[in-house]
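subagent[fold] <- orchestrator: predict structure for attached chain, return tokens only, no commentary.
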Amino acid sequence: MARLIGSVCRLCRREGTKLYLKGDRCYTDKCAIEKRAYPPGQHGSSFRQKLSEYGAQLREKQKVKRIYGVLEKQFRRFFGDAVRSKGMTGENLLKLLERRLDNVVYRMGFASSRNEARQIVGHGHILINGKRADIPSMLVKINDVVSVKEKSRKNVHILSALEASRRKGTFSWVEVDPNTFSGKVVADPKREELTLPIQEQMIVELYSR
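subagent[fold] -> orchestrator:
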């Protein structure tokens, strides 16, 4: 399965909730789901579906995959790692997804969306502990320092994202210094800070079938 290259707003409409895939636009009345809160397609406005238990679990998995931009094979690998870790599998899964480099770049405010963060990482603009890191899926460890390469600090997208993050604030598990274009992971991600409507236990139940 390839990544979607069309309108990501269709994904939010399919899931019936905001997934915040387009950065600041999702916080305005221009958001597609504010105008058309029904599935895309010819019959979307009249579409009514009563989901089975399996169907609801599957939709929850699809929603989380779309939020973090992860493909099925990657998602299964993360789930396997979550099962083998101590603690609750569902929370472990979300914590692993939060520690992906593209998500950390997004959380630190160097990108306005996870999709933009993936591009920034893939284009070589990001360093981890002073070394180039261009794999969006790599996991960032506690005490790792994530920074923007010096030559990339005039990038208009990064500057715009940092300005927006000053207004919105950052998460407690990361420390960010906008003046040096760097940040540090100081703790594991906290489940209570993830305000998106995710029911991770449904994903655990799906994979336990």
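orchestrator: received. Logging for downstream: Residues 100-185 form a domain with the Structural Genomics Hypothetical 15.5 Kd Protein In mrcA-pckA Intergenic Region; Chain A fold (CATH 3.10.290.10). Residues 53-68 form the longest helix (16 residues).
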